[in-house]
């Protein structure tokens, strides 16, 4: 048994197709079929049902798949550690970054990291916090920059950067613009320009509105900061934006109003997978993040 057999098996199990696995791995289909047959012979059990039109895992195949994925992860950790021991300050880091607030709050950190390690390739993926956590756990991302530091996922480690309250942004023609502070219940009859459903802030706003006895009337959902602002400027609704973003709105006709009780905050943090070997590129990013928090 060798690591290549395990890699081939996991890829076939992922696609449930020898053809697709061969395409992904850039290997001939007969080579993969032969490797899987040898793997089954060594284990003494069939791993796939081949009689049906759709390839299926046997019960033994399901059990082998779980352990095979752990073996591959351990093997990848070993390769990463050996690379670090050779003091190669190269490689790549895959970072998930949330739209709207990501560039505004994290650009300085990422820029500083790039200056220190110009030979490390930074791959940025812009998705919401929920998706970021999923992809960090699955290994598709090394690190996630997230909009909430509280999570029930015990497989992830998280540190907080800052906690920024949401402000109401509203056009000056709206009667709410005359208030110095507002209650969330004051917004019950307003049209909301709101974050997309895969954003943690979407859930938080819906949750707090429900506590105040109403479900918000949603005019539209977006991931773009400028779209929030332009929709409010066009008098098509109100929005809730983090204070640090709201302060930079260029229109004097848009008013920023705090809440009596700061029930909703943007909590920015960085998350990574626990109990996984972290390569040099990832460890250094986390180290810089800690320094960034303390500034």
Automatic annotation (TrEMBL):
It comes from the Bacteria. The keyword Transcription applies. Pfam families: HTH_1, LysR_substrate. Keywords: DNA-binding, Transcription, Transcription regulation. Residues 1-58 form the HTH lysR-type domain. InterPro entries: HTH-type_LysR_regulators, LysR_HTH_N, LysR_subst-bd, WH-like_DNA-bd_sf, WH_DNA-bd_sf. The keyword Transcription applies. Belongs to the LysR transcriptional regulatory family. This is LysR family transcriptional regulator. The lineage of its organism: Bacteria, Bacillati, Bacillota, Bacilli, Bacillales.
């Amino acid at each position: 048994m060798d690591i290549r057999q395990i890699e081939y098996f996991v890829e076939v199990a992922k696609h449930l197709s020898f053809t697709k696995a061969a395409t992904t791995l850039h290997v001939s289909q007969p080579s993969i079929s032969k490797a899987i047959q040898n793997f089954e012979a060594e284990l003494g059990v069939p791993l796939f049902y081949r009689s049906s039109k759709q390839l299926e895992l046997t019960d033994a195949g399901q059990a082998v798949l779980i352990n095979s994925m752990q073996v591959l992860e351990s093997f990848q950790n070993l390769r990463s550690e050996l690379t670090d021991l050779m003091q190669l300050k190269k490689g790549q880091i895959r970072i998930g970054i949330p739209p709207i607030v990501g560039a505004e709050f994290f650009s300085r950190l990422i820029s500083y990291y790039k200056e220190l390690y110009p030979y490390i390739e930074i791959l940025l993926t812009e998705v919401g916090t929920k998706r970021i956590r999923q992809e960090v756990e699955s290994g598709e991302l090394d690190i996630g920059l997230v909009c909430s530091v509280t999570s029930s996922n015990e497989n992830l480690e998280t540190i907080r950067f800052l906690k920024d309250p949401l402000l109401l942004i509203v056009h000056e023609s709206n009667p709410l613009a005359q208030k110095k502070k507002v209650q969330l219940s004051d917004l019950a009859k307003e049209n909301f320009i709101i974050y997309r459903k895969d954003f943690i802030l979407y859930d938080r706003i819906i949750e707090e509105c429900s506590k105040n006895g109403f479900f918000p009337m949603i005019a539209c959902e977006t991931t773009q900061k400028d779209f929030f602002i332009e929709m409010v400027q066009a008098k098509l609704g109100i929005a809730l934006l983090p204070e640090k973003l709201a302060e930079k709105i260029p229109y004097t006709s848009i008013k920023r109003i705090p809440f009596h009780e700061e029930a909703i905050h943007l909590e920015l943090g960085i998350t990574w997978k626990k109990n996984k070997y972290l390569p040099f590129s990832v460890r250094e990013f986390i180290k810089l993040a800690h320094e960034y928090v303390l500034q």
